[in-house]
Design goal:
heterodimer, A: mainly alpha, 2 domains, 9 helices, B: Arp2/3 complex 21 kDa subunit ARPC3
Chain lengths: 275, 213
């Protein structure tokens, strides 16, 4: 039995424990950051804002001691999607009027190119912000912050339990795979051989997981998980510092300014203001 | 109407018993591990919705929808945030599969085929819309992006090409996923199925002679 064919235990969260000001920050501020910056940039009618915010995110990544990883993530996402969108929108967008270049088989249009860069910029703000949030926030803290903000405790359980269950199932599947290989199931070879190996491995995994559901259910019920009208307490306690409260207000203000400007810009012809 | 709506919400709430809530993370795990196993055996498909199908059969459409949503949130947290907008697809497909199972279609082979086709169309439509409206046409992260670009170059039609490429991608994958889920569900002992409250009905294949325990 070859070692490489065993299921590798993947880590279950992208959280990287590094002591930094961003890591210590209240998770709610980071959630506000992702949403306000993302929606603000999406609403704003010009290109440059998204890229300015991306530059800001690079500074945040530097403060979080994650500049290397963040740059890698951004480049790995941005380069292929920019190429694809330049081809799709730049060459074939129906909105194209102004021709930038003529390749014979298709014309590169200005409107499509602008649209492509606008989309990429907005996506970079959203995904980059989300990436920074998940890499700098311990999942337990994140769920506690969301519960403090009113998330149902059962929903919180679901998120955390999913994170815990996956490595457990991975270990189980490795054991089952070994057992099936021992009784002669081949996991290597032609495509049809490998297809045939799938069912004998996934089947017992599902069955034993369902038995596990029963055990977990009973355990939770005996500990009062289903009790109603009681506010459950959390092991992790979180407090907002005055600076973080101010940061939240700044982020919301950014969102409001962006949206107001976008509305103003869209209504410009109606209001009778010049181009 | 008001009374009707209340009972609808109550019906959703009834699906979320403690057992069902515990089932959800496990089903998410099965989804993810199925995907990992498929890539481990170097199979050219995803097979990442077996858990969704099983939970739809056991605990109902809304539980399955939550399974789909959490699977994508998990993928976004662990591997790539690109998966987050595609949670719309998982939720939509889970609801379609769940409600069609409720209608009893999973009991017959032709019913399974109908569910398979319906879920493929829904997922292609939703995935295509997400790719078009959120990402502007391609994510660059999946193999189908190249197919999309080729189709656009050939047909000059953006939306149709995205839809066609995600249709091709999904059709085969879903067929295998449903076949596997169908076999697995046949073998689940009755003792394990009966504890999820679904108006006391059994939702999937139940022949008097079949069902080996």
């Amino acid at each position: 039995m070859s070692k490489q064919n065993k299921i590798k235990t993947k880590k279950t969260s992208s959280y990287i424990p590094l002591d930094s000001p961003i890591d210590r920050m209240h998770p709610m501020v980071k959630i506000y950051g992702v949403l306000c910056l993302g929606i603000g940039c999406a609403a704003f009618p010009f290109l440059w804002l998204s890229y300015a915010v991306v530059a800001f995110l690079f500074c945040v990544a530097w403060r979080a001691k994650l500049l290397g990883r963040f740059s890698k993530f951004i480049i790995a996402f941005a380069v292929p999607i920019t190429c694809m969108l330049l081809i799709i929108q730049g060459l074939y967008s129906p909105k194209n009027v102004t021709v930038l270049a003529d390749f014979g088989f298709a014309r590169l249009g200005l409107e499509g190119v602008v649209y492509a860069f606008k989309t990429v910029g907005t996506l970079l703000v959203f995904l980059g912000g989300f990436y920074l949030m998940t890499t700098t926030t311990y999942p337990g803290k994140l769920v506690t912050a969301m519960q403090d903000a009113g998330l149902n405790s059962k929903a919180g359980y679901l998120v955390l339990a999913s994170l815990n269950v996956v490595p457990q199932i991975q270990r189980r599947i490795a054991v089952i795979q070994e057992a099936q290989t021992a009784r002669g199931v081949e996991v290597e070879g032609t495509m049809s051989t490998r297809f045939k190996a799938f069912l004998p491995i996934i089947g017992p995994t599902v069955m034993s997981s369902l038995v596990d559901v029963q055990e977990r259910g009973m355990t939770l019920e005996t500990r009062g998980f289903g009790v109603k009208d009681v506010r459950p307490t959390s092991f992790v306690a979180l407090y907002l510092t005055p600076g973080e409260k101010a940061a939240k207000k700044v982020l919301v203000a950014f969102l409001i300014v962006c949206v107001l400007f976008a509305v103003f810009w869209a209504l410009r012809p109606v209001l009778g203001l010049g181009v | 109407m008001g009374k009707n709506k209340k009972s609808f919400i109550q019906g959703i709430k009834d699906q979320f018993s403690v057992k069902a809530i515990v089932l959800i993370p496990i089903a998410v795990g099965i989804n993810l591990v199925g995907g990992m196993l498929a890539s481990n055996l170097k199979l050219p498909i995803f097979l990442d919705m077996i858990g969704t199908i099983v939970s739809a059969a056991l605990a109902g459409p809304w539980v399955a929808a939550l399974v789909g949503l959490l699977t994508n949130i998990f993928l976004a947290l662990v591997s790539n945030p690109v998966y987050l907008p595609y949670s719309v697809v998982s939720v939509g497909v889970a609801l379609v599969v769940g409600f069609m199972m409720r209608a009893g279609l999973f009991k017959k082979i032709w019913g399974v085929v109908i569910i398979w086709l319906a879920s493929t169309v829904v997922s292609a439509a939703l995935a295509g819309s997400v790719t078009y409206f959120v990402f502007g046409g391609a994510t660059g992260a999946t193999g189908s992006s190249l197919l999309t670009v080729t189709l656009i170059a050939a047909t000059q039609e953006i939306l149709g090409s995205i839809f066609a490429s995600s249709m091709i991608e999904n059709l085969i994958d879903r067929a295998i996923a449903f076949a596997i889920a169908y076999v697995i569900l046949k073998y689940i002992p009755k003792r394990l199925r009966s504890q999820y409250s679904l108006d006391g009905t059994d939702d999937f294949a139940e022949d008097p002679d079949g069902s080996p325990a």
